Amino acid sequence: MDVVVVESPAKAKTINKYLGSNVVVLPSYGHVRDLPPKDGSVRPEQDFEMTYVTDPKSSKNLAAIASALKGAKNLYLATDPDREGEAISWHVLQALQEKKAIKGINVQRVVFNEITKRAVTEAMRNPRDLDMDLINAQQARRALDYLVGFTLSPLLWRKLPGAKSAGRVQSVALRLICEREIEIEAFKPREYWTIEGDFQAPSGRFPARLTMLDGRKLEKFDLPGEAAAQAAVGKIRAGSYRISDVTVRPHRRQPSAPFMTSTLQQEAARKLGFSATRTMQLAQRLYEGVDIGGETVGLITYMRTDGVQMAAEAIEAARDQIGKQFGRDYVPPQPRVYETKAKNAQEAHEAIRPTDFSRRPEDVTQHLDAAQLRLYELVWKRAIASQMEAAQLERTTVEIRSSDEQIGFRASGSVLLFPGFLKVYEEGRDDKPANGSAAGEDDEDGARLPKLAAKEALQLLDVKPEQHFTEPPPRYTEATLVKKLEELGIGRPSTYASIIDVLQERDYVRLDSKRFVPEDKGRIVTAFLVNFFERFFAYDFTANLEERLDEITAHQVDWKEVLREFWLQFSRAPEEDAGLLALQAAVKNLDELIGQRGVVIEAIDASLGPHFFPDDGSGRDPRACPACGEGRLGIRLGKNGAFIGCSRYPECRHTRPLSVANDNQTEGALVGGPRELGLDPESGLMVTVRDGRFGPYVQLGEDGGEEKPKRASIPREWKPAELTFETAIKLLALPRLVGTHPETGAEIIAGLGPYGAYLKHAKAYTRVQPPEEILDIGLNRAVALIAEGSAKKGPRRAEPKVLRELGAHPDDGAPVRILDGRFGAYVAHGGINATIPRGSTVEDIDMTSAMALLRARAERGPSKPKGRRGAKKTAAKTATVKSAAVKSGKKATTKPAADNDDAEPPPRKRAAGGKA
User: Would residue 76 show up in a list of annotated catalytic residues for this protein?
Assistant: First the structure.
């Protein structure tokens, strides 16, 4: 008997079917050993000796493997075919050796790129030894991550309240996001205009863009405002036009390479809206296999790869499928061969492709959930398209000139002559370039043009000037962040999803409309690391380190040499490196050398200050405190994170959130510090509009006195920048007494709460819309709104409609009916509601089947209560029913907790890839 160890139970189940009863396939459930999260797990002073401990959760799995090895001849380690998988196999072997479980057993490594019977049996026929270079490359990566994290994270905890950790790669990704935000904040939009002419030719009408004015080429900002644009329009209307040149040239568009991990994550984000983590989870399921016709089959090849090449037999299979499905015209004369620029071990793997090209997406629809099917379709189409013929287009460029040659227009368009690979797949596009180009400016194919010829006279039908503003670079999406990390050579395909997850879990960034926005905490951490450890979080340093790890894999350098090289730089900085504050001692002394927390704050303030206190050109000090007029604003650190405060604290308690005052913020938003509205006539205190942690608000007076100043939230629908003094005074007066209800004698209170404007009367609340009405509402209007609110509430729900009367129940004579409920038809009797099964109609139910449904519903007991109060109420009710039943000698029947909900709803379907 032989034993095979894989990583997951799903893979174990599939492979066991392929290998037969003489082989036992067991899962390791991923990593079984790791460095313990404590100081000393990696010891640089002992030539980087590492201490591993077995995960307690893995002990049971290892015990099962050790037990299966008793009497076995061979142990095959068949974990994933990459560095991480190689390391897992090594750790499993080490743990089994500690248990003395492999004495006399032949241990070998097998790898397969796809989980199909052919691939697995072929791998079992060609085993090999463990590759220690792959294992050591993974060990080096793990040691580096540990050394950086456990050296800098404690420093962060002491110096930056709220900071959670630093990471060798994650902090560089965070830096990218933060620096992009700084670019956006510093961006100053610039106005420019474009002009489009609408022309009539004998063969048809078409648009063209102005490219020449006054005899010279028109540059982007040559029409900076409306006046210049209108002047150009006047000149254009006065001219007559003809076609000066028509250029027609053929163009071939080539397909993209098959997916590797990073491009799959990018395209799934663009086209399917999947996160990197979601994409990898779905790909893992497709790789491990699904049940098709009673056999578990892996649908795609291994999904963690930098390779874009496909095996020769896969290319032939793809070409064969293209010929059968689309015709021989779509098969190029020679197979397409793709190469990747990546320089690491994972390049040896194939691209991500279907294991069987004849298994089309429509053929597996019934075997996959919606999300799995969409991802499989994406992989199948991309791989098929990569081996298809190029698309053939005909591009036409038309030059138009005025009779005096002073004004010129250009029109461009294309005709698709042969779709080629476009019949199956077209790659998605990221955001348009961040140069503010006008719509259509960068469309390489243009629009369809009528048949045009040189020298043809044209009639100018219309001239359309259009205003544009340059735009800041867009925030990163998951797709563009992965693409940028890949371009810089930072991280590896298997790490991108975890990098993104960690940044969000630690509240360093958040996703807003699928774009990453750095949180204050993330910006402060980045500023700290860049100020004090800039070298080690520089993009080129991190990329070069990745290359060194690849050299370990390629047998070019010893792994401990790479660790020594890094540690020497990390623990000792050269004297001339002022960016590290001349840190010349061992890392254990960094805390003392960086100094007190004030030094950290000063460094962060100096770094981020120009962005949070920009000079508006007015000559005023952007750091001047608007509250006291004497202090200076600066970045401060509190227990809840960073904020901007006055230097005269505690005399002046002026604060505002960490935000920049510029023109790029949302229209109507509050920018800068508190905005003064005027003095309150009663108290003589200043009324200000401010921005707080929970949104904008108005405040009466300043912080720092014996009593906390009065505040009032500003409704979300309002624009804080447009709030008037009169409105602010009315907000501060809430809640207020409107009057006494003429019928009940109870007071009516007008107020503004977290759920909007309201009227309170006799412990009941009535919502007021629009919210601004609450500021001036009078007694008569309030009474009318309360009456309308009571009328709207009315009875909870009308009696359900009776669909059928089945007759009297034989036990108690009470009627048995079929009623129409919110979730469909149900049988009702004596407080028990039983849902009619799917597939059955009202006509199918007779008294016998109705009694069976009611009996089954009663035996299940009450529905799960929705809360504590409901639980107590249901329990008490059930106890009363049972007690009465005992006394009467009858069988107890209990009414479900949701007895007035017209029976229970049908069970929810499980969401794709998630929990029900």
Answer: no
